[in-house]
Specification:
The chain is of the alpha+beta class. The chain contains 5 helices and 9 strands; from the N terminus they run ααααβββαββββββ.
Length: 178
C-alpha cells in the first residue's frame, strides 16, 4: 500500500482511483521507509522517480471504473502511449543496497537497459539469464536505492507469489507487445 498521505496527493493531481491502484502496484515490494524503497527514506510517490509521476495520466480526469485491485479505466490512447517490448535478460544480480531487489541488464534489440526489479524473493538471478521478459520501455528512469532503473519489467502477483510476464515462444529482443 501507499504511505499515508500519498492517496491525497494522487487525487489532488486529479489522477483518480486508477492511478492510486497503479501507484500501489508500482510500489509493490518496496518499503517506503527506505529499506528497499526509494533512497533516503523518501516516501513512494514523491520526488524524482516517484510513483505518482510514473502513473501520471492513468485514470486522468476522474475516478474511472474502479475494478478489483484498484485499477481504473484508461482510454485506448493512454494505452497506446505505453511502449511494451520484449527484452532478453543478459545479466542478473542482487541489488547491493536492497534485500528485495535485483539488477537486470536487458537487451531490447537496439540497446541494453539496466532495470531494478522487486523480484529477488521470487527468482534466482542465474535462472533469469537468457530468459525473456516484458518491459515498459518508455518509463522515465528512476533511482531505486541509489541505482538507476531504465524501465520496468511486468509481473503478475497472486497473493505472495510474483510471476514475470513472458512470451510463450522466443521472439527477437525489442519486439513490440500489442
Amino acid at each position: 500500500p501507499l504511505p499515508a498521505g500519498a492517496h491525497r496527493g494522487l487525487r489532488r493531481r486529479r489522477l483518480g482511483a486508477g492511478a492510486v491502484g497503479a501507484a500501489e502496484a508500482a510500489g509493490a515490494g518496496c518499503d517506503p521507509r527506505g529499506r528497499d524503497g526509494p533512497p533516503d527514506g523518501q516516501a513512494l510517490g514523491r520526488g524524482p522517480g516517484g510513483a505518482a509521476r510514473a502513473v501520471r495520466g492513468a485514470g486522468a480526469g476522474g475516478d474511472g471504473d474502479a475494478r478489483e485491485g484498484g485499477a481504473g479505466m484508461i482510454t485506448i490512447d493512454q494505452f497506446r502511449a505505453i511502449d511494451l517490448r520484449v527484452g532478453t535478460v543478459r545479466a542478473a544480480e542482487p541489488h547491493p543496497n536492497a534485500d528485495r531487489l535485483l539488477l537486470l541488464r536487458v537487451d531490447l534489440g537496439t540497446e541494453e537497459r539496466q532495470l531494478v526489479a522487486g523480484i529477488r524473493a521470487h527468482y534466482d538471478p542465474a535462472a533469469l539469464v537468457g530468459s525473456q521478459v516484458v518491459v515498459v520501455a518508455n518509463l522515465e528512469p528512476a533511482k531505486l536505492r541509489g541505482v538507476e532503473s531504465q524501465g520496468m519489467v511486468l509481473a503478475a502477483s497472486d497473493g505472495d507469489r510474483v510471476v514475470l510476464l513472458r512470451p510463450d515462444d522466443p521472439v527477437t529482443p525489442g519486439a513490440v507487445v500489442r
